[in-house]
Write a structure and sequence with these properties.
Largest sheet: 2 strands, antiparallel
Shape: globular
Helix content: 10-25%
Number of strands: 6
Strand content: 15-25%
């Protein structure tokens, strides 16, 4: 996690943007929506060492607590910006919980399992359906 990567001012701007029209989530956020989006994208690109032009648009979404119900994104790398005062992100396959505070960013590489873990909450099916 990168503590405080996103300023409180930018978190407030994103929350105001999301509350302005009550559009349903998930919702794409683009730099033309708010200067805060452009600043967040630039900080995430720098922190992840991933070129800005390779980033997908930011997506505002509510995290789910049910296993398998939370779409944390696709692509080579994924990131999460905490907009709440406090939150916890759980990676069930790793047995890892990450505590976040407002403005913290959590970045991780996506990976595909070659074998299923029994009772993993995702039906036990490996990527590609066969394992090794």
């Amino acid at each position: 996690a990168v503590p405080g990567l996103v300023s409180g001012e930018d978190v407030d701007a994103i929350l105001a943007l999301l509350g302005a029209d009550d559009a349903p989530l998930p919702r794409l956020l683009r730099p033309e929506d708010s200067p805060a989006v452009a600043r967040i994208e630039a900080r995430v690109a720098a922190a992840s060492r991933f070129p800005l032009e390779h980033l997908a648009p930011l997506v505002a979404a509510e995290c789910e607590e049910e296993l398998g119900a939370c779409n944390r994104g696709v692509g080579q790398r994924v990131g999460l910006v905490c907009l709440s005062d406090r939150d916890v992100v759980f990676f069930p396959h790793l047995g890892l919980r990450c505590a976040l505070a407002r403005g913290d960013v959590l970045l991780w590489p996506n990976a595909v399992r070659s074998e299923a873990a029994a009772g993993d909450g995702y039906g036990g099916s490996p990527a590609g359906g066969r394992g090794r």
